[in-house]
Amino acid sequence: MKTGMKRTRTVTWEDPFIVPQAAAGRSGLEILKDVFEGRLPPPPIAETMGFTGVHVEEGKASFEGEPGEHLYNPIGVVHGGFAMALLDSAMGCSVHSTLAAGDRYTTLEVKTNFVRPITVDTGRVRCEGVVVYRGSTIATAEGKLFAVTTGKLLAHATTTCLIVRAK
Q1: What is the pLDDT of residues 114-139, one digit of tens each?
Q2: Cα(149)–Cα(30) distance, integer angstroms
Q3: Is 3.10.129.10 the CATH classification of the domain at 18-164?
């Protein structure tokens, strides 16, 4: 089957070390607000996959993205990694927004359920993450990914994160 023209896509991004350097002495929420509001650059993964942070407050974070054909897999739909990246970003940032200055976190586990295929026809998608539990060393969060125009749920997930306190 001949499908036609080759496509190209150019991606640009800023130095990925600007944000970590700007984080010194600032809370997770302060840094995330600066990224989401454009005072600091987004991470390269967001530029590469085509999504952006749209809202952050303590314990909550939301991202939006536009599924494109550059994200397709061999079965003719957007690769599940796109949904997982949005879910991991929203859930992770919801945890990050609770961190004190100098604290860090890392994801220990993510469980994702895909409930509908995503295609270019799905249109813009929104992912919302919210902290479910925040302890001194462990945090859990949940996320939901849905189509903006229809409101239909596309995927949902949970995560467990390890909190590393500042020394």
Answers
A1: 999 999 999 999 999 999 999 999 99
A2: 31
A3: yes
